[in-house]
Amino acid sequence: MKTYISILTVICCTFHGIAQEGVVTIEQDDKINTLLNIYKSVNENSDLYRIQVFFGSHDKAQNIKSEVDIDFPGWYSKIDFESPSYRVRVGRFSSKLEAERKLMEVRKKYPSAMLLKPEKTTR
Length: 123
Known about the structure:
This protein is of the alpha+beta class. Helix content is 46%, strand content 21%. The chain has a domain at 39-116: Alpha-Beta Plaits (2-Layer Sandwich), CATH 3.30.70. Strands 2-3-1-4 form a 4-stranded antiparallel β-sheet, covered by helices on one side. Strand 2 (77-82) and strand 3 form a beta hairpin.
């Protein structure tokens, strides 16, 4: 029995001594960084209040967005697609109070405008 344990010990030490060390090099496609930047830019609006001015067809959304850009210069505006319609959204407000004040201003020109709550994303 002692002979088997001794042989097993010698074999384990021999294999341990022969073990190789390696270096792992990860090569990453540059497009991954581009996709990560796009993902970050999409999610940066997730904690902000926005005002929806219109939803409907793509052509009408483009016309409304052009009007919004004229009516509220300097405000961020964007056309988002949520199946099956296009939505024109304006503003990026960090507080609900600021968003509600701007909503009252927007409703003078676009009575059907509504305030959108920030989306909660899990990161």
